[in-house]
Amino acid sequence: xxxxxxxxxxxxxxxxxxxxLAQQEKWFEIQDELFAExxxxxxxxxxxxxxxxxxxxxxxxKGEDFVSKIEAFHGASTSExxxxxxxxxxxxxxxxxxxxxxxxxxxxxxxxxxxxxxxxLEQFFY
Length: 126
Fold this sequence. Notes:
Blueprint: H1 11-23, H2 27-34, E1 35-42, E2 52-54, H3 56-68, E3 70-78, E4 82-84, E5 87-98, E6 102-115, E7 118-125
Helix pairs in contact: 1-2
């Protein structure tokens, strides 16, 4: 019996799936479904909140560490993706209370790079 090959998603399909999950605040599902094993996660070098992580496990830990510091969630929204070439970007607005930082209102651009049907880079601008 021939083995079935998994279909490689187009960037439009990845962006659409990302958007659907982001609207439900399912960020870890986005990582599980769409991130490559060697994904990189990059925040601004002067960020008081995050740093750099490489590899799916390290990126997951980065997210889990941040979520564990959220004391209150006041609201969030994520725009529809804008696709160009092998990248897509969304605007994300978040209002949360974070340990050691108090109430934080972030307005950021989240940029994603896609290769071979998987997200290989997430980069945040805020």
